[in-house]
Specification:
This protein has 398 residues and is mostly helical. The chain has 17 helices and no strands.
Length: 398
């Protein structure tokens, strides 16, 4: 990677890792916090509320993402990242004082609406990176984000039984705030000023296929967290171990995804993505068919590996040859956040209505739909030198 943009990529990745670690600290215990501290009727109901709060947060972030991407283009990444970290820290402090599930949903929604760190980081990378290097640079960003998401829930899973849920919210808020001095010290690309292009529905109109593909790809991945405690309890894990096991399973899955991305984004071209989404559908269905921790880990890791190249390739496809990269990143981030927010609602509601297998079955269907959407997106792309064309997804090897 040439020196001219290497510093931007690694600066963005470093802040992305630190901030994501702090933000995802609460993921291991949010369902259990709603169940034990807020006091809803059952663990399955708590999973639904957890999924709903994730949906509201992701939907608000999806709505606001093009706007924050535009502001990053205009004013630069440094001050936008400081703003995001400040508001995230404040909302997390307020979660420590939440006394009802409605307040949890509201605060997570506000945190989502005020923007995400990944929008700023990806926009900074896209602004500085040549198109031919984009998949690799995006892969680094996704790896940094996943490493943070891997370590955060692990720490949260072990800290919550020791310090308590509400104290852990305060710890998370402090850790988010500690990333602000790092942001101010590191180098970021300058903004475009008044030359930055504003987001518009016309811009979205030219990205329907990219938006749909990213929405379904993300939805096929982000469904497990709210129903994981229910799954683990069905697999025989005791209530006093649920938090640690939840954090551990999330960490193992994210580790597999983070470890796969640097390899798969270099070796697997976008013409292979539909076939991988089809394989992912089978892996999701298998997770619900055999309820045991070893089976869950095996099939979850398999899912993460086949999923790993898809997001980077889709982001790269959406930003190639565009001047308004911040707006394009914002629109694709909207699809990503919306897909990631709606799938926990689907999985937790399906579990409440008809059980775990039905929940996993619904998400397997979503993955199959992602395979179709990605095929429709790239079927007209000419194959790059040395790679297979769209008609050769399932034939031969590179």
């Amino acid at each position: 990677m040439p020196q001219s943009y290497r510093s931007t990529v690694f600066t963005s990745c470093f802040i992305q890792f630190a901030s994501t670690l702090s933000i995802t600290f609460i993921n291991a215990f949010i369902t259990l916090f709603i169940f034990y501290d807020i006091g809803v009727g059952s663990l399955s109901e708590a999973a639904v509320w957890s999924g709903l709060s994730t949906f509201v947060a992701g939907s608000c972030l999806a709505i606001a993402s093009p706007f924050w991407g535009y502001l990053t283009d205009r004013y630069g990444a440094k001050w936008m990242m400081v703003r995001v970290l400040t508001t995230h820290s404040l909302m997390t402090v307020l979660l420590a004082f939440a006394g009802s599930v409605e307040m949890v949903v509201l605060l997570r929604g506000l945190r989502g609406f005020l923007g995400g760190t990944s929008i700023v980081a990806i926009t900074a990378i896209a602004s500085a990176t040549p198109d031919e290097e984009m998949p690799k640079a995006m892969g680094y960003q996704h790896t940094a984000q996943l490493l943070g998401a891997m370590i955060g829930p692990l720490f949260g899973g072990f800290a919550a039984p020791i310090f308590g849920f509400r104290t852990c919210f305060m710890i998370s808020a402090l850790a988010i705030a500690l990333a602000i001095p790092m942001t101010l010290l590191l180098k970021w690309p300058d903004g475009q000023g008044s030359e930055a292009k504003k987001p518009s529905f016309r811009g979205l109109a030219g990205m329907e296929k990219q938006f749909t593909a990213m929405f379904l790809v993300r939805a096929s991945l982000n469904f497990l967290t709210p129903i994981l405690p229910v799954y683990l309890k069905s697999a025989g894990i005791g209530e006093n171990q649920l938090t640690a096991y939840t954090g551990g399973v999330i960490t193992v899955g994210n580790l597999a995804l983070a470890g796969s991305i640097p390899v798969t984004t270099r070796k697997i071209r976008r013409q292979r993505i539909p076939a991988l989404m089809g394989l992912q559908s089978l892996a999701i269905l298998a997770q619900g068919a055999v309820v045991s921790v070893p089976a869950l880990l095996f099939f979850r890791i398999s899912q993460m590996i086949v999923h790993s190249p898809a997001p980077s390739q889709l982001f790269s496809a959406a930003t190639e040859s565009r001047d308004d990269k911040g707006v394009a990143i914002g629109l694709m981030s909207s699809a990503k956040f919306l897909g990631g927010s709606i799938s926990p609602v689907i999985s937790s509601t399906a579990n409440l209505l008809a059980g775990l297998f039905f929940s996993f079955g619904c998400m397997a269907v979503v993955s199959a739909a992602a395979a179709i959407a990605t095929w429709r997106l790239i079927r007209g792309d000419p194959p790059e030198e040395g790679e297979l064309g769209a008609k050769d997804f399932f034939a031969g090897t590179e």
